Amino acid sequence: LWLSARMDMIGALQVFATVLFAVSERGDIRPAFLGVAISNSFQILVFLSMVVASSADVDGNISSVERILN
Known about the structure:
Elements: H1 2-24, H2 31-69
């Protein structure tokens, strides 16, 4: 739970930084590129959440196998 909360915070900060960059550079970079950057930062946030959930699931499965073997 703590790892998921921290990864969500890191992902939210990344999205926030991307949006701040997009706002500050809106005249120099095409809007399509900025939209792709913001969209990809959201996808990275979802990916990090999936990695944390998968690793927790694997840890739980390994623990149950260890209990069976001992």
